[in-house]
Specification:
The complex is a heterodimer of chains A (332) and B (314).
Chain A: E1 5-13, E2 20-27, E3 32-36, H1 43-50, E4 59-61, E5 64-67, E6 70-71, H2 77-83, E7 88-91, H3 95-98, H4 105-116, H5 121-134, H6 140-143, H7 153-164, E8 171-175, H8 183-200, E9 203-208, H9 211-217, E10 220-225, E11 228-234, H10 235-240, H11 245-253, E12 305-308, E13 311-313
Helix pairs in contact in A: 4-5, 4-7, 5-7, 7-8
Chain B: E1 2-13, E2 20-31, E3 35-39, H1 46-53, E4 61-66, E5 69-70, H2 76-83, E6 86-89, H3 103-113, H4 119-132, H5 149-161, E7 167-171, H6 179-196, E8 199-204, H7 207-213, E9 216-221, E10 224-230, H8 231-234, H9 241-249, H10 287-291, E11 297-298, E12 303-305
Parallel strand pairs in B: 3-8, 3-9, 6-7, 7-8
Antiparallel strand pairs in B: 1-2, 1-4, 4-5, 9-10, 10-12, 11-12
Helix pairs in contact in B: 4-5, 5-6
The chains are: A alpha/beta (332), B alpha/beta (314).
């Protein structure tokens, strides 16, 4: 069976920089794929490009962008509008800015419904109230008439989720959906999104910087660094045996609630430096920060290579492709 | 001996009927060289607590003893000098640095404000601090926008250290930073603590950061401390159901798709539930919890919790 979404060699370029380069991934129906990376990794731009929401000066090139058997590139603006908010729903990080402050939350859900389905105003209102109940907002009849600023951040994000799933999408793109929220509310919302995913048979593209969320909710993971895919694996495998030095570094740098690490017992492992643009660099984008780097890493960007079943990493060193093996020259 | 002692600190906004009880009778101590963490959800009163203890906003009641002097009743002139001992590192390294000032101005302004040193001495002080926080000397003539988030936080830390404080209040110092940068800044704070003999009051919503960084933790809920414990007792045996819920809610790479630990949201601090404020969300709540407010009581030497039914067996 073909994947629900297939992205092949997606490149996003602006006049001065290329924040996403040759990125490929796919999502099966009903699956949760996490796109993980830090600021500047290109994860949000990737999501926006799938929704055709990039700024006008962005140039998007891909060998293939297929959704549910259709070529996304070939769709007219009108066809795309029907898809976006219809078969592809989206939830953003900031529920305050994503919602319209001068419409009640109920009106916004009803508006989203009527943009995609032929519904009377009355029927749309009834459906909107059902959706509010569905995202577990109490007293949905009363809440229908509330304005966004009257709701807490968690409630607003529930409204955002109601709008996103209003038309029973096949794919939900959630860009840092719980980042602005407290952990207890975050846990509630992730559980809500996941139960909606199962109930509606949606696939979920979860875009996040939070490895804890990824471990808990994702089936598969794509790790991005400086706009390139550096690792891809089933979530269990990624956390059990991370293959890319960046992924390993991130896991080692995170304090963990479960592990008894305390500053009196030693420092945290750092990844030195910061993310820098990989533009113009011939070699691996992670080279300047990498603990395992060798001179060969500077020659050309490493290809993705299999390290285990369904587990890819783009690293010459850890995928043991360095010519000369263990006596490769260590760079200072 | 306690270097900072906070005694029954209260901050109510619009006191009277319908008051917003942001800080509702908080007492704790910070000893010299100790890192005390405050953890809780947004709206629990962490930030108001800090502002009140610094007297950036006047307390409704209560006392803040710094080396035996009560900050809350000190005249403004003496307060100023005392404030040198207490400095803050803010969460947002973008919003807390003046974009129109270069790094040298940012770092020398506190010294000038307190009339410390000659121009040459100030410059010397600033250069040695830059080195301590891991910034190059050529950072001095540059402006905040020329730095990354992590470097800006280093500037914020240098600014907080420039007056040689004894206590650094860190309000979510790493939560705006990328994961790979967080570890760098936490390590820097650990190093600075040893190097300058600092105490920290460390505010964070992130329990994994708290577990790593704090010697003792205060858990706040709706303006009150509901549990406090030192590193070895609290994490091994959390007693308050709220502390347990926070720990369960923290994302954890070894867990898959768990049910949320807590239902409902934090009630409004304008309308704090009667009895134990946590009872509407608590799985262990009894009739007693709905009527009688539990007081903090000790469990062992290094831990106390405000709960009628602490799960001691688990």
């Amino acid at each position: 069976m073909p994947a629900l979404l297939e992205v092949e060699n997606l490149t996003i370029a602006f006049p001065a920089l290329t924040p996403v380069l040759d990125l490929s991934f796919s999502i099966d129906a009903g699956e949760t794929l996490a796109l993980v990376g830090e600021s500047g990794s290109g994860k949000s731009l990737t999501a926006l490009s799938l929704l055709r929401l990039l700024p006008e000066d962005a140039r998007v090139r891909a060998d293939a962008l297929r959704f549910n058997g259709r070529d996304l590139d070939g769709l007219s603006a009108r066809e795309f509008r029907r898809l976006r908010g219809g078969e592809i729903g989206m939830v953003f990080q900031e529920p305050m800015t994503a919602l319209n402050p001068v419409l009640t939350v109920g009106e916004q859900i009803a508006e989203a419904l009527r943009a995609h389905e032929k519904l009377s105003a009355k029927a749309a209102k009834a459906r909107a109230i059902e959706l509010l109940a569905h995202v577990r907002i109490s007293d949905p009849h009363l809440r229908y008439h509330e304005y966004p600023h009257r709701l807490s951040g968690g409630m607003r994000q529930r409204v955002g989720i109601a709008i996103a799933v209003a038309c029973s999408p096949k794919l939900l793109i959630a860009d840092e959906p719980t980042t602005a929220l407290d952990v207890t509310i975050q846990a509630q919302l992730m559980e809500l999104i996941d139960s909606l995913r199962r109930e509606l048979g949606m696939a979920l593209l979860l875009i996040t910087h939070d490895l804890g969320l990824v471990a808990e909710w994702a089936d598969r993971v794509v790790v991005l660094y400086a706009g390139r895919k550096v690792e891809e694996a089933a979530a269990d495998n990624l956390f059990a045996a991370p293959a890319h030095p960046y992924t390993r570094g991130l896991l080692a740098a995170s304090p963990r609630l479960i592990a008894n690490r305390h500053y009196t017992l030693g420092r945290l492992d750092e990844i030195p430096g910061g993310i820098t643009s990989a533009a113009g660099e011939p070699g691996c984008a992670f080279y300047p920060r990498c603990a395992l780097r060798r001179s060969a890493c500077r020659v050309r960007p490493p290809d993705l290579a299999g390290v285990a079943d369904n587990h890819l990493a783009a690293c010459l060193v850890t995928t043991a492709l360095v010519t000369g093996g263990s006596h490769g020259v260590l760079a200072g | 001996m306690a270097f900072l002692r906070v005694e029954e600190l209260v901050k109510h906004f619009n006191p009277g009927e319908g008051a917003l009880r942001a800080v509702d009778g908080v007492s704790f101590e910070v000893r010299q060289g100790e890192t005390v963490g405050i953890v809780g959800e947004s709206g629990c009163g962490k930030t108001t607590l800090v502002k009140t203890l610094l007297r950036l906003t006047p307390p409704t009641s209560g006392k803040v003893w710094l080396d035996g002097e009560d900050l809350a009743s000190l005249p403004e002139s003496k307060l100023r000098a005392k404030r040198r001992e207490l400095q803050i590192v803010f969460q947002d390294p973008f919003g807390s640095l003046n974009p129109r000032h270069d790094v040298e101005t940012i770092l020398t302004t506190p010294l000038k404000a307190h009339g410390l040193g000659s121009t040459a001495e100030r410059r010397q002080r600033v250069l040695s601090l830059l080195e301590s926080v891991g910034l190059p000397r050529d950072a001095l003539p540059r402006y905040p926008h020329e730095f990354s988030g992590g470097q800006r936080q280093r500037i914020g830390i240098a600014r907080a250290l420039v007056l040689s404080p004894r206590l650094l209040i860190c309000d979510e110092p790493v939560s705006a930073l990328d994961l790979s940068i967080q570890a760098q800044i936490l390590n820097l704070l650990v190093d600075a603590k040893a190097r300058f003999g600092l105490s920290y009051l460390f505010i964070s919503h992130d329990l994994s950061v708290m577990r790593y960084f704090a010697d003792r933790v205060l858990v706040m809920y709706l303006g009150k401390i509901v549990e406090t414990g030192d590193h070895s007792s609290l994490w091994a045996r959390p007693l308050h159901p709220y502390t347990r819920a926070l720990m369960q809610a923290a994302p954890d790479p070894t867990q898959r798709r768990r049910a949320p630990a807590l239902t409902g949201e934090l009630p409004s601090p304008r309308d704090v539930p009667k009895g134990c404020a946590f009872h509407p969300r608590c799985p262990l709540a009894s009739d007693r919890c709905r009527i009688e407010t539990p007081l903090l009581r000790a469990f062992g030497d290094n831990q106390s919790a405000a709960c009628h039914h602490p799960p001691l067996d688990a």
